[in-house]
Amino acid sequence: MDIAVIGGGHGCYAAAVDLTEKGHNVRLWRRDVAAFGAVLETGIINVIDAKSTRPVKIHKLTGDLAEAMRGAELVVMPLPCTTHLSLAPQMASLWEDGQVAYLPPGTFGGLIYAKAAHDAGNKANVAFGETGTLPYLARKQGADEVRISVYATRLPTGIFPARESERALEVISKAYPSVEPLKDLLDGALMNAGPIIHPPLIMMNAGPLEHFDAWDIHNEGTQPSIRRTTDALDNERIAIREALGYSAPHFPLADHYDDSRDEWMYGNSSHEKLTDSGDWREHIVLTEHRYMLEDTATGLSFLTSVAKLAGVEAPLATGFLAIGSAITGEDLYATGRTLASLGLDLDLAGWKKLLQDGFSS
Predict the structure, then answer these.
(1) What is the pLDDT at residue 269?
(2) For the chain, which residues score pLDDT lower than 70?
(3) How far are the Cα atoms of 72, 174, 179, 233, 339 from residue 163, in angstroms, in the given order?
(4) What per-residue confidence (pLDDT) applies to 361?
(5) So what's the pLDDT on residue 272?
(6) Cα separation of 258 and 269, whole Å?
(7) Which residues neighbour 119 within 8 Å (Cβ) at sequence distance 6 or greater?
(8) Burial 229-252 (b: 16+ CB within 10 A, else e)
(9) Parallel/antiparallel/unpaired status of strands 127-131 and 155-160
């Protein structure tokens, strides 16, 4: 299958090597071609995982977005959600009939790309899927090297429009056999674990993060009081899902930490593999890191806006968003990703219809 991988981050490099090793023809695009560095000269990304360290030859590297997307059956977009608003207009006219896009995860970004294409007059029949996490726990080790500590074993995935679910999931499953069908795109967006795990970890570890040169929020930063807080925040997410009619499994974050519970998205012992790698012992600048800009500013603003639509109280989501606003000096709800900021003034019935049928011509 011809697959376009959009972006040059940790998840994008991991996707490029994984999908190549699965036998697909991968076109890897990044905006800054020079940033490919040695990869551009050799076409090779070296991957380190539990199996071995080995070179993987990528089919095509390009800085031409149209070249990457042309003829691709699947477009995989493991990008920070902070890139969606700028990239969606660039991709709007490039989508082709029958293509499937996959945002792992997306924070409802699939709707942003679909709306941009619709607003640009692109009538191609394109389906957009979202899941709850990256398919990999991965970190680049250099310009041409990525370490994959964990591969996802379960990827609950929702599609927009939902009427295209069967077709889209069939395509995505060729690349990611671990996909599990959800009701619609919002169902998929509300599986996003980032806004649940990261805001408490960075804000409740703000002191050591600003004091020490490096700190592992997933190791010494994950203490019982913080775990109880993430569970409580996750209960708000689950309450929102239930109020909107989305059924279990809800993939509670507690499953990630306890192998005696149901298998989570990354499978058993994934937390231990993450901390053992040492890749998440890092220097985090609270006002600049993606855990603040992506998971808090974008993820929690989205979650709290959906809570309002569902009529569910979400005091922890609202509270962490307020603390993040104090840290950054910016009203993160006002500038974040909310249902209102998407430019669609819909009630609950209107959202359900849009999620099922997509945009009208």
Answers:
(1) 82
(2) 361
(3) 21, 20, 17, 31, 21
(4) 54
(5) 86
(6) 8
(7) 92
(8) bbeebbbbbbbbbeebebeeebbb
(9) antiparallel
Q: Which of 157, 115, 114, 120 is nearest to 135 (CA)?
A: 157
Task: State the pLDDT at residue 34.
Answer: 85
Residue at 92: amino acid letter? A
Residue with tokens 């695009």: 29
Residue 38's pLDDT is what? Answer: 85
Token pair belonging to 261:
């519970």
DSSP 49-79: -SS-EEEEE-SEEES-HHHHHTT-SEEE---
What single letter denotes the amino acid at residue 351? W
Whole-number Å distance between alpha carbons of 169 and 191:
17
Termini Cα distance of the chain: 30
Q: Are 169 and 46 in contact (CB under 8 A)?
A: no
160-187 tens-digit pLDDT:
999 999 999 999 999 999 999 999 999 9
Q: Shortest CA distance to 320 belongs to which of 190, 221, 226, 187? A: 226
344: which 2 tokens?
């669609």
Could you tell me the domains of the chain?
2-189 (3.40.50.720), 194-357 (1.10.1040.10)
